Amino acid sequence: MSEDQDEIILADLSDEELVEQMWDDLYDGLKEEIEEGVNILLERGWAPYRVLTEALVGGMTIVGKDFRDGILFVPEVLLAANAMKGGMFILKPLLAETGAPRMGSMVIGTVKGDIHDIGKNLVSMMMEGAGFEVVDLGINNPVENYLAALDEHKPDILGMSALLTTTMPYMKVVIDTLVEQGKRDDYIVLVGGAPLNEEFGKAIGADAYCRDAAVAVETAKEYVKRKHNQAATA
Ligand code: B1M
Q1: 3-state secondary structure 58-103
Q2: Which atom of ligand 1 is found nearest the CA of 72?
Q3: Whose CA is closest to atom 49 on ligand 1?
Q4: Which residues form the B12-binding domain (predicted)?
Q5: Which residue pairs, CB below 8 angstroms and at least 24 apart, start in 63-71?
Q6: Residue of 163, 167, 218, 219 with the most ligand 1 atoms within 8 Å of its CB, for mutation
Q7: Count of C-beta atoms within a 10 Å radius of residue 176
Q8: pTM surpassing 0.90?
Q9: Where do the domains of the chain lie, and which CATH numbers do they carry?
């Protein structure tokens, strides 16, 4: 960045200016500045979720547009992702500290061929904050990983993430395998990721498509409640 950038004192900026500066800093992959900005907003009384959505996800949306348009390339986007993760690391314990009662459990992972994990990590963080126990399988998961984790942890929910149009069909491979093995109805299957939509979720046999992490939490709560009610009346 230019020398002007070095002279900016983040703490002197208004909230609005600071958020815009953080979008620039995320774009430039400046992890320390992002961490500083997150801490300043928290000190000013911003709720962790607001910092996450407005300052971090807002910045990543701009990166995504320029990545799509060929203005940014993989190395720059990796730096932006690293800066975003720095900010998320600060927010993670705060989002988890809600003291929410235990709601249920979830195994989640990004599907085979896909290494995008920021959205999945966000979903994991928010689910933990809402009282769910989360087993995160990481990225690039073949069907065998999901099956092994489901057998081991016996969660209420299976969550899958995909960010590429080329990897999202793999979610159907996982669901079809569960059907073949007679295990599909043992789990609530929730799917998410930028290229998905509700129609796709239905077409592959998922219980629900979740647009974002907040929707994932609400959907998970609703389905777990429904499952427990069914068990109680059975
Ligand atoms: Co990637 N990439 N990328 N990338 N990348 C996208 C996805 C893309 C849309 C960019 C673009 O062209 N505009 C495009 C996909 C096009 C398509 O298929 N339609 C793309 C491409 C093409 C690629 C490569 C092929 C580029 C290349 O190599 N030429 C390559 C593929 C690598 C691979 O996976 N095999 C690639 C690589 C990368 C990086 C490694 C550089 C980096 C990932 C770093 C990382 O994740 N650690 C990266 C990034 C950062 C992006 C963008 C810019 C940002 C993704 C992100 O983190 N968003 C992205 C553009 C975009 O999405 N606008 C792009 C922020 C995050 C909070 O949102 O992930 O959508 P999101 O998650 C949301 C919801 O979707 C939902 O909740 C989350 C939180 O609210 N959600 C779930 C997500 N998962 C869920 C699971 C659930 C529920 C909800 O389960 C219950």
Answers
A1: HHHHHHHHHHHCCCCCHHHHHHHHHHHHHHHHHHHHHHHCCCCCCC
A2: 53
A3: 77
A4: 103-234
A5: 63/26, 63/27, 64/194, 66/27
A6: 163
A7: 14
A8: yes
A9: 5-98 (1.10.1240.10), 104-233 (3.40.50.280)
Is the CB of residue 70 below 6 angstroms from any atom belonging to ligand 1?
no
Q: 83, 31 in Cβ contact below 8 A?
A: yes
Mean pLDDT for all residues in the chain = 94
Cβ-contact 101, 122 below 8 angstroms: no
The 10s digit of each residue's pLDDT in 65-123 is 999 999 999 999 999 999 999 999 999 899 877 666 788 999 999 999 999 999 999 99
Residues 6+ apart with CB under 8 A from 163: 110, 114, 116, 119, 193, 194, 195
Q: Is 142 helix (H, G, I), strand (E, B) or coil?
A: coil
- CB of residue 139 inside a 6 A radius of ligand 1: no
Enter the DSSP assignment of 11.
Answer: G
DSSP 47: -
With a CB cutoff of 8 Å and minimum separation 6, the contacts of 182 are none
Query: Is 109 close to ligand 1, i.e. is its CB under 6 Å away?
Result: no
Is the CB of residue 213 below 6 angstroms from any atom belonging to ligand 1?
A: yes
CA pair distance 46, 63, nearest whole angstrom: 23
Q: Is there an atom of ligand 1 within 6 Å of 89 CB? A: no
